[in-house]
Design brief:
Helix content is 31%, strand content 25%. With 64 residues, the chain is of the alpha+beta class. It binds zinc ion. Residues 7, 9-10, 12, 32-34, 37 line the site of zinc ion.
C-alpha cells in the first residue's frame, strides 16, 4: 500500500510522490499540494504542525 502524506496547511492528503512541494523541518520532510501551502508552512511551521495534530490526532503528516 502506498504511503500517504498530508498537507498540514490545507489538510489535503495524497500518495507519497504525488506532490513535488516539500520542506525539511527538524529532520522531517513535509509535503504540500502547492507553493502557497509550503510558503505558509515556512512562515509558521510550529503553528501548522500543532494545528494539524489537533485536527487529526491519529494521523502522522509525513512518513517517518
Ligand atoms: Zn495545500
Amino acid at each position: 500500500m502506498a504511503q500517504m502524506v498530508h498537507d498540514v496547511v490545507c489538510g489535503m492528503s495524497t500518495e507519497l510522490g504525488e506532490w513535488t512541494e516539500m520542506v525539511e523541518y527538524k529532520g522531517k520532510t513535509y509535503y504540500f499540494c502547492c507553493d502557497g501551502c509550503s510558503g505558509a508552512f515556512k512562515k509558521s511551521p510550529e503553528y501548522h504542525i500543532k494545528n494539524f495534530a489537533e485536527d487529526h490526532p491519529d494521523l502522522m503528516p509525513t512518513p517517518a
